[in-house]
What we know:
heterodimer; A: mainly alpha; B: 10 helices; about 70% helix; about 5% strand
Amino acid sequence: MAQTQTTATAVARPPLTAFSWKSAVVAIGALIVFDVLINVYERLYALAKGLDYTSADYTTYWMSMLFAELVMEAVTAGALWGWLWMTRDRALERLSPAEELKRYWALGLFVLTYTYAAYAGASYFTEQDGTWHQTVIRDTDFTPSHVIEFYQSYPIYIIFGVGSLVYAMTRLPQFAKAFSLPYAVLVGAPLMIFPNVGLNEFGHTRWFMEELFVAPLHWGFVTFGWGALAILGTWLQVCPRVLALINHIYYGKPIQSPAEVMRDPQSSCDPAACVACVL
Amino acid sequence: MQYSQVDAEAKAVARKFDLVVIMSTFLVLIAGFHVHQMLVAGDWSFWIDWKDRNWWPIVAPVLEITFPAAVQAVLWTKFRMPIGATFCCLGLLFGEWMNRYINFWGWTHYPLNFVFPETFIPAAVVLDIVLMLTGNWIVTALVGGELWGWLFYPTNWVMVAPFHVPVEYQGSLMSIADVINYMYVRTSTPEYLRIVETGTMRSFAGGVTGVAAFFSAFCSVCMYVPWWLMGAHFFGSTKFFKNYESATAEVKNA
């Protein structure tokens, strides 16, 4: 274990208002409203305008949506990740405990938003596609439900997932200098679902005409879906450090400095810490 | 007085972090478990006419003991929380019902009698209790995994049984489930695609469900072990890859 700095003097406490749910409520609320509107759009135009790929209506109502969303996603991803990187903290070793705890709270809300987006993409819109497959015999890879599922809901959660990782890497000592295995799996595996769409569509175009959900062609998605389990390891890395920060700020217990955590982040996740949690 | 205020603040902050961890874990597990379940066992889950007595009770338990085992590996060993399996299966059921109701029924109008999902809640509670009482994951794999397979068909039977009442339809013997499938047209799931029991020259009448459940239980035991290990050692790993400075320093020191 690396050397720890001890202190008996009072440490600055963050105001309780710093731990507000507001930003997550706004972000997730906006996503829910957006998803409801998307459902309304589907109900209005999927059966009315989305049954014939060769029609002019299809181009207007569905292909335009596909191109528009792809452009907006690329811009949003570039802007969000770029902004997080450009505004990175360049003096992490001088981070105060109160500020670090506040940043963990922000990370928690970021990850929470990501997990809602992952739910909407991988559970809601994916199984929704299941019923659309049973309703039409498709004449394109870009069916109305694919335009939403693959090219809208997946990119949205990828943007949030990678965004939360960039936030952690640029704001928190634990993730600043070394790469977290579970976090990489958590964010990277769902990200890989998107390229796997390539295999899926190629396969459906070339050799699987029917819609057997359990077809081997789909199993690539499954292995990437497993990555969701890596949130367990991610929280196991975060929780001991958060506990240590709380114990330090409120009870004056010793804690590793940010510099020590950056040098050896593994040492900040004592596996016994969560079991011993008495807060 | 001063101390108790600080104490209250610390506890309030810790409770908030608890909520974030629990909610985010629940949401992302719905996503992962549902996409897994849908693409390895989904067809049996979607349609009442796929819920047969041979393949459904094998495929569903064997492939759905996966996430519960992995989540138990972390929640039990790190937090002593005996709810890993139920947590997963509740999430899965939530994800499925949201879709069956809003989309299968609400959007494309397949009746809920046709598209209701299977349940794993009873088997999951048993699996969690076995782990809690024994505190031993090998025993849970052997006993809990076995019960997981056995319990699946009986605990779903109450929902499925009404659809197995026979009817004579245009001169043919059909079950209600078959008639529902026949009436509510699915464009891309022709009858021949259905993977259900069709009878063989080497099977004995009446012995199908029990044998399937027994085999399913054995396979569930076998699935539990690697998934526990993956949960404990890979998905629940706290490994960081070494940063550039320390990796370089190690090389220099060597």
